[in-house]
Design goal:
The protein is of the alpha/beta class and about 130 residues long. The chain is about 40% helix and about 20% strand. The protein has a 5-stranded parallel β-sheet with strand order 2-1-3-4-5, sandwiched between helices. It is globular, with a radius of gyration of 13 Å.
Length: about 130
């Protein structure tokens, strides 16, 4: 079954680079990569799996996304977060909490095998078990 994946970033160079690498790792998935300033709420509804990336905590471009996630139930859908900053990762964890997205326990913090991490989240969304 082809998974529909949504990747939303703050548009910073580092997060865009990581987002492109995630997209490249998800062969066989239908992937939409969008900067938060261009994000539209209905994009979440069609996504089986979401990835969110930010370089810093509370980026201004995430204001709308944050509000949408606070008022939508996406229970059962998997989510991965990525950043080069622990503080930004903590912000992203908080951002997805109310949406009931199933947050993959390990964020991608710029080190390690991004291909295995990203593919693992998509596979994990099928199995719904711990990585």
């Amino acid at each position: 079954m082809e998974k529909t994946v949504l990747i939303v970033t703050d548009g910073a160079e580092n997060t865009q680079k990581t987002a492109r690498a995630i997209k490249g790792a998800l062969e066989g998935c239908r992937v939409t990569l969008v900067r938060a300033e261009d994000f539209e709420g209905p994009q979440l509804l069609s996504a089986d799996v979401c990835f969110f990336g930010a370089e810093t905590p509370d980026p201004p471009s995430f204001t709308y996304l944050y509000k949408v996630l606070a008022h939508i139930n996406l229970a059962g859908r998997s989510c991965g977060i990525f950043s080069n900053s622990e503080e930004a990762a903590a912000y992203l964890r908080g951002m997805v909490h109310d949406s009931e997205l199933v947050l993959y326990p390990q964020p991608f913090l710029g080190a390690g095998d991004i291909n295995a991490w990203a593919a693992g989240i998509v596979t994990w969304s099928v199995k719904k078990d711990t990585p």
